[in-house]
Fold:
Amino acid sequence: MLKKLITLKNPKSRSAEAFRTLRTNIQFSSLDKELKSIVVTSSGSGEGKSTIMSNLAITMAESGMKVILVDCDLRKPSIHKKIGITNSVGLTNVLVQGVKKEECVVKTTVNNLFILTSGPIPPNPAELLGSKKMRDFIEELKNEFDLVLIDAPPVLAVTDAQILSTIVDGVIFIVSYGEAQKKALIDAKHLIDKVGGKILGIVFNKVPEAVSGYYGKYYKGYYGNEN
Structure:
């Protein structure tokens, strides 16, 4: 399943090159502080967040960074489906049952890339993500990995992304071109701003060829934070 992702399936494609551009933009987006943990979210559902995250994680790992992709969507997890692994154990087992992370983290076939799935869906996702255990766990991952990429639910659906934004170094929004509503995106940005989260920028997904120009039909473009 991992090989079906565009950065592995067709690494010389325009789409794969766009992810490398995204990687560079992220690396230079914060000159005063090293980015060790990033939440990726969206204003609404169906904007391609998990697919973008998986390809971004691969691209980051290919640059030599030791990367872990953590599925913090404890309501509708999907990273395990994108990668093609089981979700029988994961983050919730670590937080609730005290299972060692080494028993849950999966090393992928991509060098330097590791995955931590959500694990069994809990009855109290927001409480778990906002707990001291979660905060301490993210710090533990930051000490072990060069980059912690966190997949979070849409901002307007639940409070989870807001909570996570307070314990990471930055937030990236995925926006489906022509589908996402401007008001929804503005509202989502205000919710992150309200809790003090740092928005790094926006990734436009599904941009038509006529708009994206060089990068082609499936361009994923990175744009800086705009007020």
Observations:
- The two ends are 38 Å apart (CA to CA).
- The chain has one domain: 2-224.
- Residues 2-224 form a domain with the Rossmann fold fold (CATH 3.40.50.300).
- The first helix runs from residue 6 to 9.
